[in-house]
Structures are given as C-alpha cells and as structure tokens.
Amino acid sequence: MDSSYSFLVSSLILGLLVTLGSVAQEAEAARAFFVFGDSLVDNGNNDYLATTARADAYPYGIDYPTHRPTGRFSNGLNIPDIISEQIGAEPTLPYLSPQLTGERLLVGANFASAGIGILNDTGIQFLNIIRISKQLEYFQQYQTRLSALIGAEGAQRLVNEALVLITLGGNDFVNNYYLVPFSARSRQFALPDYVVYLISEYRKILARLYELGARRVLVTGTGPLGCVPAELAMRSRNGECSVELQQAAGLFNPQLVDIINGLNSEVGADVFVAANAFAMNMDFVSNPQAYGFVTSKVACCGQGPYNGIGLCTVASNLCPNRDLYAFWDPFHPSEKANRLIVQQIMVGSNKYMNPMNLSTIMALDSRT
Ligand SMILES: *[C@@H]1O[C@H](CO)[C@@H](O)[C@H](O)[C@H]1NC(C)=O
Ligand SMILES: *[C@@H]1O[C@H](CO)[C@@H](O)[C@H](O)[C@H]1NC(C)=O
User: What does UniProt give as the signal peptide span (predicted)?
Assistant: First the structure.
C-alpha cells in the first residue's frame, strides 16, 4: 500500500471517529472555548483596531462560508474554527465584536490579535494591537460579564471546564529579533539567551491563565519559521529553509515543553498540553505531495519569489485552488493545512501532543 493511499484510508477512519465523537458531544452542551495569541488564531479582533495587521479585504476569506473577509488570516477557516467544529461548538467570536453579548458569551471568546508576541515590544510596527497582558485583562473582564449573566459560581465552572488555546512566540522572532538586521533585541541578546528570556516570560503568562481559572490549555509551539514563503523570499537562495529561523524554533519549542511539564507538576494535573506545531507543519512542508499539495514553498496569495514578498492583497497573484497550497499567504497556512494540523491535535501520537491529544482530553473530561 503506498503511503498516500494509507494516509487517505487512515484519514477517512480518523475522520469517521472524529465525526462520531462530535455527534456524541453535541448531545450535551459543547464546552466553552477561549483563544489567546497571534494572527494564527485571531478570529477578527484586529478589524476593530487602528492597525495595519488586518485581514479585512479580498481575497482573505475567499473560501469562508460567507466568501467574505472576516479578519482571519486564512482563505477560509483557521485553527480555532476547526477546533470549535471538532468539539461541536460555534466558532468563537472576537472579544471586540459587538455581537459577543448574552447567550453568545457561553460559547467562549477569542482574544487573539494579529502581530502580538510574548514580549510587549513585538509587533510595535503594527501600532494598536492587543498585547498578551491586555488579552488576559479582557479574559478577566469577560468573566465579570459572564458572572452577570449566569452568576459567579456558574461562570467559574464554565471557565474551569472550558478548553483554552494559546499560540504565541513566532512573532517574537519574525516580527522582533529577526525583523531587521541588528534589531534592538538581537543586539541585546544572543539567540539562546533571547529564547531563555522569552520562555521565562511565557511561563508567567501560562501561570496567569491558570490563576484566571483555565484548566485545559493547549499550548502550540512555533511552526517551522524558516520555511514560510516570506522567509524563503528574504533569506533562501535555493528554496531551503532559513537556518537561523529554524534554529530559533528548534531552541524555543523544547524549552516550551519543559516549562509545560514543570507547570503541570507544580499544579499536580495535566492542565497544559503541548502541541508540536513544528512537527505538524514539517510533515507537509517536507513532503507536500503526500498531503495533496502541489507546493509548500509558494504561497497561494502574494507576489515576488515564492509569492513571499509583502502582503496578500487584491493586487496579488492568487491561485485558483487553495486546497493545493500549504501556505495561503506568505506567513499563514491554508484552510487545508489548518485541517491537517487540527487532525494531529485531535488524534496525534506523543510525537505531536504531550501528554495527550484532544480526543483523549475530551474523553477524560466527559467522565468527570
Ligand atoms: C508588558 O506590559 C504590561 C502592561 O503594561 C506589563 O504589566 C508587563 O509587565 C509588561 N511585560 C514585560 C515583559 O515587560
Ligand atoms: C490520540 O488519539 C488516538 C485516537 O483517539 C488514540 O488512539 C491515541 O492513543 C491517542 N494518543 C495519545 C498520545 O494520547
């Protein structure tokens, strides 16, 4: 049996299991879902802000159910949307959306903001974005609003039983340390010391999430930063991934797993779950054809080498079939690639999910 055929068969089987799982889940009310982080998981908060980090124009959203831009950095659905789908929930509304009121608060909320990082100075060029400390403040404000709706005890329970996703770190490299040659941070820190600093700040953020009531938190490491079309366009001679950025991800991700293990043993429970986004992405980046892509180097939407220069706009090259491209724009995966990533989050082995995958989490949590 060739590998693409066995992949197809196992996808079909897993797809069936996941479908059955989500039907069973829908019998009860879906659990709430909270999302924190950057553009990989922003459902549209930045559309309400005076910033240049926005996905508010065609062709963003071209494959979204409405075929309109929503602020998501995708041709269609993004990672949180597909997780919502899998847990049988409505997609999370951006926290800044005026529609996020009343019963809709029970679904959860999305606090993510494109351009942000672990550090406050990451993404300063985008001006007005919601930095992570502000996202956590909004989470607290959300809980006050939820308490007014369902009472303090109910609100506490909803938050404790919720699923949380946090995606941070990529911008601390691409939109800070490596943004320009001789950046302030790269003059201040050698790369290994910068990573240690980032991780120590990330630990405080995760500890704060726990204080605020989060009890199941998916923490994604960074993807293969050196292999995105933007970095290929800027740093690659023959299409090979940028060594420095791959090295940055290679230092960051294992240390993130270490602090996750440390926090879990401190709180005496598997609260934090590491998702190995690097490995999930590398599978289709290094063998795109096995996953139905024609390329993992050229973005569907963009211009210049690898369609990796500048932004995806109405004036860019646009591929006719987005499902054939691993990257939608110079930095962000296509919906098809996001589906492959969430598939591993759901049912991946220990290579991808530590200490367990989301289907195991759901089975465990439905018994308590
Ligand atoms: C980032 O800014 C917030 C709010 O001003 C502050 O509380 C926090 O300590 C800052 N973080 C760092 C790492 O300086
Ligand atoms: C992940 O999910 C699959 C399918 O539900 C399960 O068989 C497997 O043991 C899980 N792996 C881990 C590491 O939890």
Answer: 1-29
Report the nearest atom of ligand 2 relative to the CA of 348. Answer: 1
Question: Residue 24: pLDDT above 60?
Answer: no
Residue 99 buriedness (CB in 10 A; 0-12 / 13-18 / 19+) = exposed
Residue nearest to atom 1 of ligand 2 (CA): 347
pLDDT tens digits for range 111-122: 999 999 999 999
User: Mean pLDDT across the chain, nearest whole number?
Assistant: 93
Domain ranges in the chain?
A: 3-18+30-363
| pTM: predicted TM-score of the whole model, two decimal places | 0.92
Q: Is 39 a catalytic residue?
A: yes
What local confidence, expressed as pLDDT, does residue 120 receive?
97
Q: Is the peptide bond before 59 cis (omega within 30 degrees of 0)?
A: yes
Is residue 19 scored above 80 in pLDDT? no
Q: Indicate which atom in ligand 1 lies nearest the CA of residue 133.
A: 3
Query: Closest Cα partner for 225 from 327, 114, 362?
Result: 327
Q: Which atom of ligand 2 is nearest to the CA of 356?
A: 14
> DSSP labels for 278-324?
HHHHHHHHH-GGGGT-SBSSS-SEEBSGGG-BS---TTSEE-S-GGG
| pLDDT tens, position by position, 140-193 | 999 999 999 999 999 999 999 999 999 999 999 999 999 999 999 999 999 999
Catalytic residue among 84, 329, 334, 359, which? 329
* Residue 71 near residue 44 (C-beta atoms within 8 A): yes
Mutate to test the pocket of ligand 1, among 133, 199, 208 (most ligand atoms within 8 A of CB): 133
3-18+30-363 folds as Rossmann fold (3.40.50)
Cα 80 from Cα 218, distance rounded (Å) = 11
- 356 CB-near residues (< 8 Å, 6+ apart): 270, 273, 364
The whole-number average pLDDT for the span 299-313 is: 97
Query: Which one of 17, 342, 359, 366 would you pick to mutate in the ligand 2 pocket, going by the greatest count of ligand atoms within 8 A of its CB?
Result: 359
